[in-house]
Amino acid sequence: MRQRIDCFLPCQNFDDLETTVTNLRGSNIVNRIFLMVAEGSASKMAVPEGCNIIEIDNMQSAATMRKIGAHATAGSLRQAWNVLLTTLTTDMFMKQAALRT
Contact 33/52 with Cβ under 8 angstroms? Predict the structure, then answer.
């Protein structure tokens, strides 16, 4: 059984991430997709299908890392969590074996 990956992406505007989210959703190894948005802005955003929202103060804060750790569930109790964390806001295109555990 293949391990799955939880993905965490910074998000200011969903339109900027539409291609990346579509590509991640198309991968059978992706468990869940989290969009990290600025605190107080989640209520203004429509949550894209198949995505979850996490409100953060900034990408480099310890509080953000704790929130990622609290939401990461891919893997099992005997194994480390599998997480894709990116700080890029540009489109990501998945190539063959791009996400492999």
Answer: yes
Nearest-5° Cα angle at 94, 21 to 53? 20
- Residue 14 CA: distances (Å) to CA of 7, 30, 72: 15, 19, 21
Q: Please count the other Cβ atoms lying within 10 Å of the Cβ belonging to residue 57.
A: 12
101, pLDDT greater than 50: no
Place of tokens 């799955």: 4
Q: Whole-model pTM?
A: 0.77
Using alpha carbons, list the distances in angstroms from residue 53 to 14, 20, 34, 82, 101. 11, 15, 6, 18, 25
Contact (Cβ atoms closer than 8 angstroms) between residue 69 and residue 54: no
